[in-house]
Write a structure and sequence with these properties.
Strand order of the largest sheet: 6-7-5-4-3-8-9-10
Bound molecules: 3-phosphoglyceric acid, manganese (II) ion
Pfam families: iPGM_N, Metalloenzyme
Cofactor: Mn(2+)
Largest sheet: 8 strands, mixed
Enzyme class: isomerase
Shape: globular
Number of helices: 18
Organism: Centaurea solstitialis
Catalytic activity: (2R)-2-phosphoglycerate = (2R)-3-phosphoglycerate
Helix content: 25-40%
Strand content: 15-25%
Structural class: alpha/beta
Length: 573
Amino acid sequence: MASSWKLADHPKLPKGKMVAVVVLDGWGETSPDKYNCIHVAETPAMDSLKKSAPDKWRLLKAHGTAVGLPSDDDMGNSEVGHNALGAGRIYAQGAKLVDQALASGKIFNDEGFNYIKQSFANNTLHLIGLMSDGGVHSRLDQLQLLLKGAGERGAKKIRVHVLTDGRDVLDGTSVAHAETLEKDLSELRGKGIDAQIASGGGRMYVTMDRYENDWQVVKRGWDAQVLGEAPHKFKNAVEAIKKLREAPNANDQYLPPFVIVDDGGKAVGPVLDGDAVVTFNFRADRMTMLAQALENEKFDKFDRVRMPKIRYAGMLQYDGELKLPSHYLVSPPLIERTSGEYLVNNGIRTFACRYSHSSFKEVDTVFLSMYNSETVKFGHVTFFWNGNRSGCFNSEKEEYVEIPSDSGITFNVKPKMKALEVGEKARDAILSGKFDQVRVNIPNGDMVGHTGDIEATIVGCKAADDAVKTILDAVEKVGGIYVVTADHGNAEDMVKRDKKGEPLIGKDGNVQILTSHTLHPVPVAIGGPGLAGGVKFRKDVPNGGLANVAATVMNLHGFVAPDDYETTLIEVA
Ligand SMILES: O=C(O)[C@H](O)COP(=O)(O)O
Ligand SMILES: [Mn+2]
Ligand SMILES: [Mn+2]
């Protein structure tokens, strides 16, 4: 091992304990009422962690500046949450880096913009992404500044391909967003720039799949955006969104694809040879599939029919390992020396002995981790955890297990999702004795919470709690340690509230359902028979956040974290 990777031994804590790291997705802490699905659901396992050991349960900040977002008005999300959990430090995240690059004008001077600019004189600039002010994947104000900047720098023809949100923002806000965008585009037209929205669709049905769960989602987007083909044709995007929202059960997340056509019925914005394309989402997970389709010569995930020769740039580079895409407007946070990479580089003997052929030969290089979730969250505990890197650091020491998610449904239909399977896989991994760390993500609170279906979310929360119980029982059997936490809030509050905390009533007389994440803190609990006596949470880290978890987990493996990591949450009395 290179000496730079060597972690110091913890002065008091032993090595060799199996540590289960459990991340409940979308599981925050707030006051109990009927819109708090975690409170309403039966969750005995999580309740017992809170009640039984007050010095081993606490809250952590999971939003805003604590996870590298521009302000404390920004809710947390899985990318920034898992980045912080895995990296142990707070990095300025995509949202903030793009803000800075736009404010300084640097974005317009760097390589990525200069590359796409070559298409401005004779061809079209296409901007594809999520039309939202949620700040999770993209932001409308950033798109507006990008449009303005491109217009000022010679873009003559601009086409925007919008994906409606309703997941990180209230359902129905797509209409106002499209109106805002249309106003900007008409100002550009006033300056002689041919600027229009060219296509659209709901993010979950068109384009923004992740982790290769369902390539048909990306194909629907490709057909509308690149080929100019969609089942619905309109003259104007605001009209399109309003009309498509009238269908029974329609919502922003799942609007069908549409294209804008001219008076002759011809699509106004297919992508053609010589054009420039920018995907303006800064967040990676739901853009990498489209990025592959736009960038890769060889591609077999669906029939692209026509692959235009384009200049393509991402808002950010989405995958640092695959260098995807190769051109980008803003450099992503350089997240390096993550806890996963350190641990892989620091051997743990005890369990590794089981791999040795001669009995009790010391094998000092094997650190096995097993990371598992189902498809829709799989990359969270791998890709995000490892600083937006796909693949393992060392395939001999890491095993990534993925349980296929149900696809083609919204998760309120099957709110238990694969929690049982995730729990059982984790249990089996723990009991196998092959792994020093077993890391899992349990998605229900988040994925069902995003549907806005309160009854289903309650069922999902119970299923998540059942999975926690399965894992804790296995930890108990092997004498291990557990760390149970969450990446951000969601299921604990399902309604939009006024400043006093009262539910807001919408125009239709019903409470306004909140599908998005929240600003609430998340719990973290430690315990298990392997936890050394006297270990408890320190009282002097009152502002602790997700980034403090990595040093804590390193301690529980018997190591001291590197100096520049956020401090550990625990002390040994
Ligand atoms: O991509 C999504 O599903 C939401 O926009 C954010 O949810 P996540 O951050 O929990 O993935
Ligand atoms: Mn999440
Ligand atoms: Mn979410």
